[in-house]
Amino acid sequence: MFAYFRGELIEASPDxxxxxxxxxxxxxxxxxxxxxxxxxxxSAVRLLAHLHVKEDLLQLYGFFDEEERQLFRxxxxxxxxxxxxxxxxxxxxxxxxxQQAIVSNVPERLYGIPGVGKKTAARIILELRDRILRLxxxxxxxxxxxxxxxxxxxxxxxxxxxxxxxRAVAQKAVLASxxxxxxxxxxxxxxxxxxxxxxx
Length: 200
Description:
With 200 residues, the chain is α+β, with helices and mostly antiparallel strands. The protein is 48% helix and 20% strand. It has helices spanning 32-37, 66-76, 83-92, 95-103, 118-133, 141-146, 152-162, 167-178, 186-199, and strands at 4-13, 16-21, 24-29, 44-54, 57-63. Strand 4 and strand 5 form a beta hairpin.
């Protein structure tokens, strides 16, 4: 509905920016990263926007560049991650650092962010890794440089271990699941492995 807002920056704080355009002032929630890149109040500014709709609330979120907005929307698509937590993640780490943690399967990089525990970090990696790997390098140049040379099996085993299973249990389930799958993705392999563990 709103692509961006361009106007005068009225005021800004580490979590909010107010922009006046055509005589109307709009409040947009922002990450700490976007806040650091804002000009002084009274200056012209342009922020990309995302409108989040809940049953009883319409809230605008502002982003300095498309890369940050894109990652915010990807995080929102993850089970159990709402806009408040997605913004906290973007405030805790730079965009390329979040991408690196996800594609490198290093959940502990996300643990220090308020609201992100082991299970949440594992779920973010499980659901977003393949999607981030498919991003075009032109849209996320730093992501391509940090993609590790890791096997599909090891990725799935590490994800299961992060969820609390022992290495032996994880390896057995992953190997069993691989035998019945053709060209699986990490997310699919982990899901099949979880079913195998529950049915064993």
